[in-house]
Amino acid sequence: MRSEISGGETADVKGFDLVMAQDLPEPEHFLADKGHDADKIREKLEERGIVAVIPMRRNRKEWRAVDRDFYRWRNLAERCFSKLKQWRRVATRHDKTALSFLGFIGIASVRIWLRFLST
Predict the structure, then answer these.
(1) 98-118 and 74-84 helices cross at what angle (nearest 10)?
(2) What is the DSSP letter of 96?
(3) Where are the domains of the chain?
């Protein structure tokens, strides 16, 4: 999983290049919501041989099929974000620096994982 921190008012599309520029192994699939449905993103993914699993926006003139069974896996990431946002400090981002914010996300993630292991 790749991530990048941006301002709350920043569109999802603008963070795509930052996330894909990270020096990590090449993903096979790109699961995203309708906020990433842009021709440029789809073209870049095609060039790199990555399968785009992005539902189409309603105003699209040209529709492409989406593997609904694969897209359902995105629910796991959404539930993870939901659990992280239950921590007030994460939901409201009280930290002044990105480093301390990411550090607390790490702490919260470990606590959630430990609860999961103990059940």
Answers:
(1) 110
(2) S
(3) 1-72, 74-119
